[in-house]
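Input record (one chain):
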Amino acid sequence: CGAVTGRCGPASAAVLGGADLSPFAPGASKASHSEWALMLARRMRKEVGCTWCIAESGRCGPNGDSTDLAAGFTSIVVSGPVERGLTVEAPDCDREENMWSFAQAALSLLDECVRQAAAQ
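The corresponding structure, as predicted from the sequence alone:
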């Protein structure tokens, strides 16, 4: 089991083995957050040598940022024997509530993937 947190700049590129795909750059979209989470989950799963990895990227609120994306969404990816992702939209910009909601969504997605892998 392992965890990693990244934001942007040289450190995030280093986490991805030199890839420079920042979802925080001007003009970024929600799709770029999904791509980032997918790359991060795959890379960290391989780097750590674990069976499963969860990665996420988004905005918990209460504000958007310089990319003009609204707060209150996250892209979550589970990488493992079963690989799936989803984007969760929050109904409001309550940062703490959104963080709890996003964590629950990530753990539920992991549970679904583990169950699907066990059934194969």
